[in-house]
Amino acid sequence: MLSEILELAMLVIFGSSWPFAIHRTYKAKRVDGKSPQFMFLIIIGYLCGIAAHLADGTKLWLCWVYLLDILLVSTDLALYFYYAKRNRETH
Question: Nearest-CA neighbor of 65 among 3, 1, 16?
Answer without folding.
Answer: 16
